């Protein structure tokens, strides 16, 4: 896995030099969701750096673990990744021994993705960090608010 990725821009605990009026943006769901995504990604890079996982690779591992044999095209579509970009990541994961690509028995032209034992071990280690990480990131919300947030996001983003 690659070393820790550095992301440009302000960290979530840094503030611009002077206070800015963001009332209009705070009423914009897309803007607020994007800032929340950035905050969660910053936290993810810190918490999962020792494993070498990024948000994208964690998602790839989780989908393959939960859907053995998933084709790359389905994975790309689900994760909203361009297929050529996903293929680059899959090449790295395969050369590192985390995944393997098999030809489908039903259609020899099709490729199926599987975790290797090494990949299964890595996603298991990542999964152990997930609950404490989510608890930390969602700490400002009550348990009921956390459930409501997930319910609303799942309604907005039916997968």
Helices and strands in order:
Layout: H1 23-26, H2 29-48, H3 55-66, H4 72-79, H5 83-95, E1 99-103, E2 111-115, H6 117-137, H7 143-156
Helix pairs in contact: 2-6, 3-6
Pfam family, one: MarR
GO molecular function: DNA binding; DNA-binding transcription factor activity
Keywords: DNA-binding, Transcription, Transcription regulation
Can you put this structure into words, describing what you see?
There is one protein chain. By secondary structure, the chain is mainly α. The protein has a domain at 30-126: Winged helix-like DNA-binding domain superfamily/Winged helix DNA-binding domain (Arc Repressor Mutant, subunit A, Orthogonal Bundle), CATH 1.10.10.10. It is 58% helix and 6% strand. The chain is built from 7 helices and 2 strands. It has helices at residues 23-26, 29-48, 55-66, 72-79, 83-95, 117-137, 143-156, and strands spanning 99-103, 111-115. A two-stranded antiparallel ribbon has the order 1-2. Helix 2 (29-48) packs across helix 6 and helix 3 crosses helix 6. The protein is elongated and about 60 Å long. Residues 2-7 have low confidence and may be disordered.
């Amino acid at each position: 896995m690659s070393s820790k990725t550095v992301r440009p821009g302000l960290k979530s605990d840094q503030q611009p030099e002077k206070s800015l009026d963001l009332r209009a943006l705070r009423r914009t769901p897309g803007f607020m969701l994007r800032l929340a995504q950035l905050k969660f990604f910053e936290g993810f890079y810190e918490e999962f750096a020792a494993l070498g996982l990024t948000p994208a690779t964690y998602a790839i591992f989780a989908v393959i673990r939960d859907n053995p044999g998933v084709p790359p095209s389905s994975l790309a579509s689900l994760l909203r990744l361009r297929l050529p970009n996903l293929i680059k990541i899959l090449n790295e994961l395969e050369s590192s021994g985390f995944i393997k690509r098999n030809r489908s028995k039903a259609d020899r032209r099709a490729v199926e993705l599987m975790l290797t034992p090494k990949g299964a071990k890595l996603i298991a280690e990542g999964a152990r960090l997930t609950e404490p990480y989510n608890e930390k990131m969602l700490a400002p919300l009550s348990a009921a608010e956390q459930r409501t947030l997930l319910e609303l996001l799942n309604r907005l983003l039916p997968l």
